[in-house]
Design a protein that fits this description.
The protein is of the alpha+beta class. The chain is 25% helix and 32% strand. It is built from 2 helices and 5 strands. It has a 5-stranded mixed β-sheet. The longest helix is centred in the middle third of the chain and has 14 residues. The N and C termini lie far apart (24 Å). The relative contact order is 0.26.
Length: 93
């Protein structure tokens, strides 16, 4: 299982990894920060990026803030870090 810190930017034009901020990954989310929609989009995007089931990804801290800690099951931390830093069109949804 990999645990990562992300800083999200809700209501973006599209969902994509946009860089780093210290130890956190910056992720634009094409969802508003209401009724858990941004958290759900964050989990969906990370599951798709990592190639793991959606149920294996969950926000464990920061549900109502921009800084979140996310657990991603079924993938090593090093592999997830590689996927998050690799520039790819597949990251833009």
């Amino acid at each position: 299982m990999a645990r990562i810190t992300v800083k999200v930017h809700p209501r973006a034009k599209r969902t994509a990894v946009t860089g780093r901020l210290g130890d956190a990954y910056k992720i634009d989310l094409a969802a508003p920060p209401v009724e858990g929609k941004a958290n759900a989009e964050c989990e969906r995007f990370l599951a798709e990026l990592a190639g793991v089931p959606r149920a294996g990804v969950r926000v464990v801290s920061g549900q109502t803030g921009r800084m979140k800690v996310v657990d991603v099951g079924g993938i090593a931390a090093e592999e997830l870090a590689r996927l998050l830093t690799a520039p790819s069109e597949s990251q833009k949804h």
